[in-house]
Design a protein that fits this description.
The complex is a heterodimer of chains A (268) and B (328).
Chain A (H helix, E strand, L loop, with lengths): L5 H4 L13 E12 L2 E12 L3 E6 L5 H9 L6 E7 L4 E4 L11 H5 L5 H14 L15 H14 L4 E5 L7 H18 L2 E6 L2 H7 L2 E6 L2 E7 L11 H13 L20
Parallel strand pairs in A: 3-7, 3-8, 5-6, 6-7
Antiparallel strand pairs in A: 1-2, 1-4, 8-9
Helix pairs in contact in A: 4-5, 7-8
Chain B lengths: L4 H20 L12 H21 L5 H9 L14 H15 L11 H13 L2 H33 L1 H16 L6 H8 L3 H25 L3 H9 L4 H38 L5 H10 L3 H29 L9
Helix pairs in contact in B: 1-2, 2-3, 5-13, 6-7, 6-9, 6-11, 6-12, 8-9, 9-11, 11-12, 11-13, 12-13
Classes of the chains: A alpha/beta (268), B mainly alpha (328).
């Protein structure tokens, strides 16, 4: 488990700096259903503070439902169970969700106040490589740049927990690789707890320290990936993890490299 | 094996989208970026090549068309300076030409210069300016009243469920009644003076403004609602920073319809029931068979309509500068 450094010291108690840290997210018996169909079935899960966790699953396996539950975005969903999450939670969506009528910096500052926040906004934009684009309009940005801006927006709030719902799903392959590096870098610098929802097995293996597979509403596999960073996509040892994950997802070997399921949106 | 199939298809579609929009919007020098430069340039070259040949062959075609051909892509291309005036100027040229050639019955359609001379005479003897002022005052007050009512009602209905329950159905009902059909009733209620005219214009104006603003307010993108929740926006900030700016494009659609509506209402009212104003002037002219005076009136109505619509467009362009639509 991560031993936390400077970014964490300013935080309030629960995320803690001591060795057996209290989990940032704690789920007990979390159940959610839509129209009588159970999407999450008594999920128990602890996400330790400062860990980068990836959540894999088929389309419709409930990945997004789980993320939305943790984010507190599922007011109208029938469900039960215990859930505790930190106060400062940021979400990065699959689409950048920048408001087209606000300039990039103003988008990053959405929901914040004051001069000090503006400074943090500029710093966050610089961190994601968008220094100098503060005054651009969102529709002047490329897909990758827009997603960087969305990352900056989530960083400004100095989140204890960063939830990312297939944040790179709409990007092209090259941009995606760059964004993987950026996400990992940002995480190493700020050490929030991260839950990265994805359907890309390779993305999960390269980025995360722990990979969960959600299957039929439950955590089907909980795999700790014990390899140093930065990881290479060609690392043969990662192949073993990939095999196990694909097996857990019910994909046979000859489909390596991509999920064998149509790329549908998860159930909202 | 780093690329999964879904991401590969996403890549090509993004690149294609970039290509289309890049073609249409010049001055967008940056941002070819990470999204597949190759397919974009090849796409542009292809269309440009096709355009070169056909564009050269058709130089005599109307302005907008050549513009489109040369640039390639689906966007209509760059706007010519003062292109909006080309149509009217052509129309007047035809009119003048036909009059000069003696092809028009001067009693039915007097020549443009006759109309202008009449306008000059009416202006110098003072009747035209008072008529114009009266009409402007009517249209102006009716419009201001309708604008205020439309905005207040739409905000109330669009931002609160109670307001929606009380207002929306009522306005829809009002909308179903042809406003000009209310004229007899309003004359009985408000007398035949200025009040009823302004009231009718206000009704003509408020309906499109209400309808468009209300639907824009209530049609706010659900994804932005979620975003506001995630970013911890208060209700007030959510309305101020997301709902209202998001509804502005819809508001401007309503505003332009409202402006046009105010002139339309004015024309009808002043033709039916007036003792002064441009419509009155034209009504009198009809009795005396003065076609030139009628045309003067029409000309002024037209100019006012054009000017006020352009003014709204100008404001719209300023306020919505973040939008890069086909019109930009």
């Amino acid at each position: 488990m991560a031993t936390h450094t400077e970014q964490l010291t300013s935080r309030p108690a629960p995320s803690a700096t001591t060795a057996p840290a209290a989990p940032a997210v704690r789920l007990r018996g979390l159940t959610r259903s839509f129209d009588g169909r159970t999407v999450l079935d008594h999920v128990d899960l602890d996400l330790p503070a400062g860990q980068l966790t990836a959540l894999l699953g088929h389309s419709g396996s409930g990945k997004s439902t789980l993320l939305r539950a943790i984010a507190g975005l599922d007011h109208e969903v029938v469900g039960s169970g215990e859930l505790s999450a930190p106060d400062r939670v940021s979400v990065v969506f699959q689409d950048s969700r920048l408001l087209p009528w606000r300039r990039v910096l103003d988008n990053v500052l959405l929901g914040t106040d004051g001069k000090e926040a503006a400074e943090r906004g500029r710093a966050a934009l610089a961190e994601v490589g968008l220094a100098g684009r503060e005054r651009a309009w969102p529709n002047e940005l490329s897909g990758g740049e827009a997603q960087r801006a969305a990352l900056a927006r989530s960083l400004v709030r100095e989140p204890e927990l960063l939830l990312a719902d297939e944040p790179f799903g709409a990007l092209d392959a090259l941009t995606r690789i760059k964004m993987h590096g950026l996400l990992r870098e940002l995480w190493e610098r700020h050490r929030p707890s991260v839950l990265l929802v994805t359907h890309d097995v390779d993305e999960a293996i390269v980025l995360a320290d722990r990979v969960l597979v959600l299957d039929q509403g439950r955590i089907g596999l909980d795999l700790t990936i014990d390899r140093a960073h930065p990881r290479s996509y060609r690392d043969p040892l990662l192949g073993e993890y990939r095999e196990r994950l694909l097996a857990a997802l019910g994909v046979t070997e000859d489909h390596t490299g991509s999920e064998a399921h149509p790329d549908q949106e998860d159930h909202q | 094996m780093t690329t999964s199939i879904p991401s590969a298809t996403a890549a090509t579609s993004t690149a294609a989208a970039t290509a289309v929009s890049e073609d249409g919007e010049n001055g967008r020098s940056d941002e070819t970026g990470e999204t597949g430069e190759i397919s974009q340039t090849s796409g542009a070259a292809e269309t440009a090549g096709a355009a070169e040949t056909s564009g050269a062959a058709e130089t005599a075609a109307p302005a907008r068309r050549t513009g489109r051909r040369r640039r390639g892509g689906l966007s209509p291309g760059k706007r010519l300076p003062a292109s909006r005036l080309i149509g009217p100027v052509l129309f007047f040229a035809l009119w003048a030409g036909a009059s000069a050639a003696g092809q028009l019955d001067t009693n039915a359609i007097p020549a443009p210069w006759t109309v202008l001379r009449t306008a000059g005479q009416l202006w110098s003897d003072g009747t035209l300016s008072t008529d114009i002022l009266t009409s402007l005052r009517r249209a102006g007050s009716g419009f201001a009243l309708g604008l205020t009512a439309g905005v207040v009602l739409a905000l109330t209905a669009g931002l609160s469920r109670v307001g929606e329950a009380l207002i929306d159905g009522t306005v829809q009902l009002n909308r179903a009644i042809p406003t000009l059909g209310l004229i007899p009733l309003f004359i009985l209620w408000l007398g035949i003076g200025e009040t009823f005219k302004i009231a009718i214009i206000a009704i003509v104006v408020y309906i499109p403004i209400y309808l468009n603003l209300y639907s824009a307010l209530s049609g706010i993108d659900h994804r932005f609602v979620e975003l506001a929740e995630v970013q911890g926006l208060s209700k007030l900030r959510f309305i101020r920073e997301i709902v209202i700016p998001g509804a502005l494009p819809g508001f401007f659609v309503g505003l332009r319809l409202g402006v046009t509506g105010s002139w339309l209402g004015l024309v009808v009212l002043e033709q039916i029931n007036a003792t002064s104003g441009l419509g009155y002037m034209m009504f009198q002219a009809q009795n005396y068979g003065q076609t030139d005076v009628i045309l003067v009136g029409l000309l002024i109505y037209g100019i006012f309509g054009l000017v006020s619509d352009s003014a709204v467009r100008l404001i719209e362009r300023r306020v919505l500068s973040w939008r890069r639509t086909l019109n930009s």
